[in-house]
Amino acid sequence: MKIVSLNIINFRSIKESRLLFDGHSLILGxxxxxxxxxxxxxxxxxxxxxxxxxxxxxEFDFYNAQxxxxxxVEGEDSExxxxxxxxxxxxxxxxxxxxxxxxxxxxxxxxxxxxxxxxLAAANPPxxxxxxxxxxxxxxxxxxxxxxxxxxxxxxxxxxxxxxDKVGKPVKRLFGFLYLxxxxxxxxxxxxxxxxxxxxxxxxxxxxxxxxxxAIDRLRNLNIExxxxxxxxVLTSIEERLGKYISSDIDGRATKLYVSQLTREHxxxxxxxxxxxxxxxxxxxxxxxxxGTLNVLVLALLSFIAELKPxxxxxxxxxxxxALPPHTQRRIxxxxxxxxxxxxxxxxxxxxxxxFEPSQTLLLKRDEEACVSCMKISDxxxxxxxxFQRYARRGLSECMLGKGAIVVEGLTEFHSLPVxxxxxxxxxxxxxxLDIAGVVFxxxxxESNMSKFGRFFKDLGLTTFSFYDYxxxxxxxxxxxxxxxxxxxEHPHAGFEALIVNEVCLDRQWxxxxxxxxxxxxxxxxxxxxxxxxDDLKKLVKSALKSSKGTGWAARLxxxxxxxxxxxxxxxxxxxxxxxxxxxxxxxxxPGEVDEADLL
Length: 600
What we know:
- By secondary structure, this protein is an alpha/beta fold.
- Among the domains are: 2-23 and 50-169, no CATH class; 383-600, no CATH class.
- The chain has 22 helices and 21 strands.
- The strands form four sheets. Strands 1, 2, 3, 6, 7, 8, 9, 10, 11, 14, 15, 16 and 17 form a 13-stranded mixed β-sheet that branches. Strands 19-18-20-21 form a four-stranded parallel β-sheet, sandwiched between helices. A two-stranded antiparallel sheet has the order 4-5.
- Strand 1 (2-11) and strand 2 (14-20) form a beta hairpin.
- The longest helix has 18 residues, at 291-308.
- The protein is globular.
- The two termini are 50 Å apart.
- Keywords: Endonuclease, Hydrolase, Nuclease.
- Residues 1-92, 217-353 form the Endonuclease GajA/Old nuclease/RecF-like AAA domain.
- It comes from Mangrovimicrobium sediminis.
- Pfam families: AAA_15.
- This is ATP-dependent endonuclease.
């Protein structure tokens, strides 16, 4: 069973969205773009226990907390603004088809929509398949002064006009949807609270029969006071004082100590799963093990659930990388891809991102009207699947999550430009730090790779910048670079090392050489004790930088410069970046003027 379509209206950070899915989906995007909202929306429709909360939705589940729309007619009541979330499921199991037969429709795989009743003649495989369309509607009930939510069958042919049939919990359990918010899920994974992973396993296995009744009976017969005789005088005194105000005809003691309230709900919250992690450690509550171990426990429970329902488990999992080493991150991603019918994963980790194919990777976009859309990474031009896999851990993932990409042709520039940017930012508070602006440096390794990465980032909606050496090249090659970048910057030197030695003052160059020699970091490179004449010093520095491109020596040289001593070509280029990513806070008021928000 799989989700192929999700429509969201007026829910949390999303005013409107229509998203299409084709199997496993890695959902990417910067913070606050709507990744968690999408997972929460699916949970509202498919999660069997989500709507059992009271209230099932609240003010801030409505976009901008707007659940009422003022009437244009004076004296009329405000109109309700509902939450509407619609999910379309395909690949239905026999049980779902049997249980929901009258509500089935047909999904066109070619047109990516549900067919209308008048199009049923076209409902032929493989161009179409049976589907089930469900929608959750959340509203504010003015009469009851409460927020309400219910899931319905969008296609309800036997319902009264204007009405829809409700979807009950037993049907939702057939969908096998699990929403795993790593920190929150892990904190209660092995508890027996409703909807916890252990509770789900016990329910699927039918292993809960008699659990609560037998536990309550044993606790009721547990005589705590017998092991603490010194409590008896205290309790007797309390009873005597109560007797002055409350009459009782009970023979003997009217009060007793129990370890629990002896209700099923209270036991759910107080029962705890204990485990030992080493020979010298007594069992401790599972919440007290390390965060990484806790997340591995979550994975173990997930594998149990997936094996119980191998053909119908749909996982939505937020940031599986939290507190886990890279090899475990990869294992979780691989497990979800291989052992679930469908997985929705949000992540910022390159170790997770690299496990998904570009066709499975969705980048969210959000416009000024809070309408969220997505595009497959595979739809962006210029980058093949093998490039995506190769560069995922080399800055590609970080760029995809940013707003701008500075593409350079080698490690020397990749190490050096961020140093210059930091020095400029520290000396000028009006410049917005590139990290905060979401501008990322990316090493394309060679100039020949730059155009394809520029086109790729540009297609993803990033502002793109190039920075590369001067060489004689054909006009079509130059035009290719110009077209691939929003800002194309070819510096006037034949190599970054030439730029350094021609634009950094000689005193800083000699300080750098002295530092290499005195620290012993120069290796086999020979550096004289006395400062050479200017031309020889330039040749010496250039030779040193060229001989050790991967060691970051050029960046180390720039580290010793003040903002005024940085190469002017580099400064000129970076100012082009800062101009397109201005510091909004500093532009809102005059220099020296203090905004109240700045003090908070």
